[in-house]
Amino acid sequence: MARIIAGIGTSHVPAIGVAADQGITDQPYWKPLFEGYGPLRQWMDQTRPDVAVIVYNDHCVALSPASIPTFAIGVGDEFKPADEGWGPRPVPVVKGDPDFAWHLAESLILDDFDLTIMNQLEVDHGLTVPLTVACGQPAAWPCKVVPLEVNVVLYPQPSGRRCFALGRALARAVASYPQGLKVVIFGTGGMSHQIHGERAGLINREWDTAFLDDLTANPQRLVDLGHVDYMRDAGAEGIELIMWLVMRGALNDDAKEIYRHYHIPASNTAAGLIILENK
Amino acid sequence: MSTPTPPLSIKEQLADIPGTYPFTKERCRLGYHLNMFFTTLLKEANRREFLADEDSYLAKYPLTDEQRQAVRARDWGAMLKLGGNIYHMSKLGGTDHLTFQYLAGRMAGMSEQDYRDMMMRGGRPIAGNRSIAEQSNQS
User: What ipTM was reported for this prediction?
Assistant: First the structure.
């Protein structure tokens, strides 16, 4: 039986990927951020998950305004890094796990979560930067990946409550897979940031800290946050944090925080990282 | 005794966030063709064709004159107001080899250096930037 061993929340800022790709992570601007990623890389090396379900959003790359699914799952054999307007990232092709992904899709849909199924999907920084954060720059990614894409761009995004419930259903889906896989769930995006309009550059450290605290102390408070709460207090694009709630929902109630890291700035963003382990 | 004020609708609450253009159904409709144009810049061949002759390239898409002008002028704030979505607009930014940080600074009306310095100091604070109504009450 497959089991979820942990959840990881991490920002997926494109500039973090650029810094890694250009080999400038030792520069003073980037060093404090990347040093904080060390413990996650050690954790990945030690625990060696078989599959990562990466909850992320496409940034209008694989998906255009022509069709905007609220939730979608990638079931292909592989996912190539996408050209986002400045050429694809020079990172390994992401390998899928079609058997597992199709099982998740079937289980989730029968559990009343009506996911869009994507046989073909090129993945942007939203998915590849978390891999860089967790795995560094290997010749091949050390685990298979199931992309779970969420609309966080067009209002109304799914509510935090719905995202958390999807996480619950994801846990049931994983538990009903017969093969003994070790699964880790990534919730990506955030933390506070706003990259458009006159208010661009908004950062809210206090709000972010409370969010990190309440992932273990009081997840219900986070589940009850509404669209305006995120967009007003964590910046318009801070609403990406609803994707962390899919991750949190997939974990046991008594999941334990084993590591966190928080750094301002990564480009326009407060970069956060947290590891939550199932007991 | 005054009548209690009815709670604000979500639309009113979103409109109360200063300097922010939530990508709502209205903006999605207004900017549909503009955003579809940005999507074409995901291909290198299209980026080259666009940069070689912007007017001819733009003529292929049913944009409004204002949208066309905003693209030609690289007026990022205007693109936003005309329905552009920042993630779509970033494809034009990429075509011009501009970073998200540069675009954000332009939209905030700041020089690249001033914006970068603000971020190094911890970003734009939430105090005074939460709500248009709060701003008017304080002034």
Answer: 0.95
